[in-house]
Amino acid sequence: MANAVVELKGCTRHYGGVRAVEAMDLVIFEGEFLSLLGPSGCGKTTTLNLIAGFVEPTAGRILIDGEDVTGLPAHLRGLGVVFQSYALFPHLSVFENVAFALRERRIPAEEIARRVGEALALVQLDRQGRQRPAELSGGMQQRVALARALVYRPRVLLLDEPLAALDKKLREEMRDELRAIQRSVGITTVFVTHDQAEALGLSDRIAVMSRGRIEQLGAPREIYERPASRFVADFIGASTVLRGRAVADDRVALSPDLTIRVRVGGILRVGEQVELAIRPERVRLAAAGEGTAEARIEGLVYQGAMTEVSARLADGQRVRVFVNEPAPMPLAPGQIIHLRLPADAFMVLE
Amino acid sequence: MLKASVVALMAFMTLPTVVVMVVSFNPTAILSFPPSGFSWRWYVNALTYPQFQRAAVNSLWVTLGAVALALPIGTAAALALERGRLRLPTLWATLLLSPLVVPGVAAGLGFLILAASLGMIRSRAVLIAAHVALVLPFVVRSVWVSARNLDATLERAAASLGATPWRTFRRVTLPLLRPGLFAALLFAVVVSVNEFVVSLFISNRLTEILPVAMYSYVVNYTDPTIAAMSTLFITATFLVIWLADRYVGLGRVFLHHR
Question: Considering its fold, how many domains does chain B have in total?
Fold first, then answer.
């Protein structure tokens, strides 16, 4: 890939006794869109604040373009930040909000007018310059915040859950717009979110975080299809985890009378306890027969395009299944169904 | 019934003021009610009385000095309290707000003893310092309310946009504290201009401020000059509040509507 823009080297941040970020190593490359994804309290916002310079690391170093900026205060780092609450200045017009950074850089008035105009045009708000932030809708405020952060062409754009305050429809619109703008500007972007759909849809790479550490770092497809740990498998998408014992390099016994075939590429060692994960959309309803497992339906959640089925295998382990609607047969709680678990759909968890 | 008692209460509250105002236009030289005619003579007397003129100038300087010192000190204190940058925050809050509950006589005596031990007895500096202490609780309170409504992310945003801490304070923090600062200014002026007890202890005829001069006058003379002076005082205070309400909107200042 291209050259490194942001580097975290062994960055640790403690708040009192709480370890928000623990010995983090992370490299963010030129022009890439990297998401920090995880549940609240996993350290993703602290990581962003470390890069922005709002908090100093307890240990470790931060480099931007190869230069050590660990002790450099936020106002000297020249990074663009969009906050979850937008943090627009309520006493300034939209124009002045966007012009803020340019005025701090003592840029001549005509150039400010031109560049603010361009930035507002980029987010389609060229007509709202004279209004106050409070007069705009949430989506418009979000775009002002983006224009304000982009107008001085920062080295890196940091986005702290920028879509979280919007309602669902608007959020999806803004997500597409955000990606389009990021692509057209070509700016290196770090995006903090707890929403896996946003992260999967927007990112070049995702860092899944838990308890101050990166659990897995990789492309969206890689994270989704080959989760490195049980945490990642649970957090990204839905999954069912099955426990069993390897009885051959391609067979796992869940119980003495239920053995399934798996194809995971030679990681299985005979006799070992293993945890297997499978996505609910990979499990299929089938007719009774060779290579299927019997299960009893425990719960049904109809969701329009599909129905979420919760079923229990003969050995007591639970399996989730997404059945596309219209379903091939009527389903009811208590009913016995047969499931096909494709051998290549299994993931082995550490 | 309720309406009647409200009217009675209002009358009880405003009657002394009305009596003073009416008496100030009474041509006779004794403080009597009801009046026997109409005259401006006590106003002429009040405005030309040299001691009142001197006291008015003193009042102006003391209030100006006290407000000029108390506003920045109080603002800094309110921000420090709000941001939790202080150790023992409750102790600081109690200290800063305590002049509200200390009786004026005790505070006055305290300042007098302090001034004497510093060899600065009846100096204007001590008078101004005392006024700073007395108006500070009002300044801290007013600014604190504004500071509490201030989103700290706004300051982070300013920093990320390249503003130094000082520029952030000037361009973001201070403008957003304006309602609180305005309320603080108003409170400080009204409290300082009307302060009497403490000032009585630590001033002499050369340094005394208007309320003290008025008190001295009442002790020595009993003509309606003092009523005229009081009416001027009331009118001035009323005008200040009215103008403030008209041009800034006190409701906005005190209720903190954006």
Answer: 1
Residues A127, A124: Cα–Cα separation, whole Å: 8
Please give, rounded to a whole number of angstroms, the shortest distance from the CA of A215 to a CA of chain B: 29
Residues A133 and A77 in one domain: yes
Other Cβ atoms closer than 10 A to B245: 14
Determine phi and psi for A25, rounding to 5 degrees. -115, 125
Residue B91 forms part of a structural domain: no
Structure tokens belonging to residue A157: 């754009």
Alpha-helical runs (H) found in chain A = 44-52, 94-104, 109-122, 138-150, 168-185, 196-202, 220-225, 230-235
Q: Which of chain A's residues have a Cβ under 8 Å away from the Cβ of B163?
A: 75, 100, 104
Q: What is the pLDDT of residues A215-235, one digit of tens each?
A: 999 999 999 988 888 888 888
* Same domain (yes/no): A152, A214: yes
Question: Which amino acid is it at B4?
Answer: A
Q: What is the ipTM of this complex?
A: 0.81
User: Of A212, A234, A256, which closes a domain?
Assistant: A234
What confidence score (pLDDT) does residue A189 get? 95
Nearest to residue A341, comparing CAs of A209, A234, A244, A198?
A: A244
Residue A117: predicted pLDDT? 94
Contact criterion met (CB < 8 Å) for A54 and B156: yes
Instruction: Give me the CATH number covering residue A202.
Output: 3.40.50.300
Closest CA to A46 of A17, A19, A72: A19
pLDDT tops 80 at residue B122:
no
Let me know whether A276 and A263 are in one domain: yes
Largest CA distance in chain A: 79
Please tell me whether residues A224 and A157 are part of one structural domain: yes
Domain that holds residue A286: 238-349
Q: Nearest 5°: phi and psi at A313?
A: -75, 170
Reply yes or no on whether the pLDDT at A27 is more than 50. yes
Residue A1 confidence (pLDDT): 52
What pLDDT score does A266 carry?
A: 63
Whether A152 and chain B come into contact, CB under 8 Å, resolves to yes
| Torsional sign, CA A257, A263, A264, A265 | positive
What tokens does A134 get? 């409070």
C-alpha R_g of chain A: 25
Q: What is the number of structural domains in chain A?
A: 2
Q: Report yes or no on B183 lying in a domain.
A: yes
Domain range enclosing B211? 57-82+102-255
Cβ of residue A83 closer than 8 Å to a chain B Cβ: yes
CB neighbours of A71 closer than 8 A, spacing ≥ 6?
A56
Q: Are residues A35 and A135 in the same domain?
A: yes
Please report the number of interchain residue pairs, chain A to chain B, with beta-carbon separation below 8 angstroms.
64
Predicted local confidence at residue B177, as pLDDT: 92
Rounded Cα gap, residues A87 and A320, in angstroms: 42
Q: Are B163 and B175 in contact (CB under 8 A)?
A: no
